[in-house]
Amino acid sequence: MNPTVALLTVLTLMLSACGSNPTRPRQTAIYPSLGVVETRGVGEPLINKVSGTLVPDIEIKNDTVIGKHALAKGRYVYNDENSKGIWFGTDAHFYMRKTDGFLCMEATGVCKQAEYTLVKRLQSEGTEGTEGVEQTLLYNGKIGNRITLGYREFSQGLARPAFSNTVDYDLSASNIVGYKGARLEIIEATNTEITYRLLSSFAD
């Protein structure tokens, strides 16, 4: 290949990494499932609701050499994408070519077939013009017949202090507790753990 043509090809691929992403639908994941009995310790989440974008991470099965570059086996996070490929890694140094699934190095454009798996992940960081939010309700322990739960919200991976709160519930009044639309049936609670059933999750 003519060196000039090869250089232009590499530059085109590098610039395309910064192109606009195909639209990925925003989704919501809730854990645990409604109606399932769970047991959690102090400081552990009782409910976790993540709203964001479903993206693919890549898990490379074996150490792989592409041209003069080595990719260690392991999982690399989704970074960016356009119509040509999906970029991975925090510095977006390689991508999967969409036409044939080959892995290509960002710096050289050299591509190679490799063994890997795409793993779907709900990304709560949000996208430009939107804001992904993660909500969680934590078990903070029991004193007498009262339990304490902590509510936290995270946006773009960071805690939102204005959306954090701690609430107490008297189990002698009711074994059903709730916060922001979420409802839990408390089956048993001690100083170290709680057994509960999720009746409903946080309201949208």
Structural class, please?
mainly beta
Q: Considering DSSP H and I runs of 4 or more, what fraction of the residues is helical? A: under 10%
Q: What is the CA-CA span between the terminal residues?
A: 56 Å
Regarding quaternary structure, what we see is: single chain
Any low-confidence stretches, pLDDT <50, length ≥5?
1-20, 126-131
Structural Rg: 23 Å
How many structural domains are formed by the residues? 2
Largest sheet: 8 strands, antiparallel
Count of alpha and pi helical runs: 1
One letter per element, helices H and strands E, the order comes to HEEEEEEEEEEEEEEEEEEE
Mean pLDDT: 82
Task: Give a short summary of the structure.
The protein is mostly beta strands and 204 residues long. It has one helix spanning 3-16, and strands at 26-31, 37-41, 45-60, 64-66, 69-71, 74-76, 78-81, 85-88, 94-97, 103-105, 111-112, 116-123, 133-143, 146-155, 158-159, 165-170, 176-179, 182-189, 193-200.
Helices and strands in order:
Layout: H1 3-16, E1 26-31, E2 37-41, E3 45-60, E4 64-66, E5 69-71, E6 74-76, E7 78-81, E8 85-88, E9 94-97, E10 103-105, E11 111-112, E12 116-123, E13 133-143, E14 146-155, E15 158-159, E16 165-170, E17 176-179, E18 182-189, E19 193-200
Antiparallel strand pairs: 1-3, 2-19, 3-6, 3-12, 3-13, 4-5, 7-8, 8-9, 9-10, 10-11, 13-14, 14-15, 14-16, 17-18, 18-19
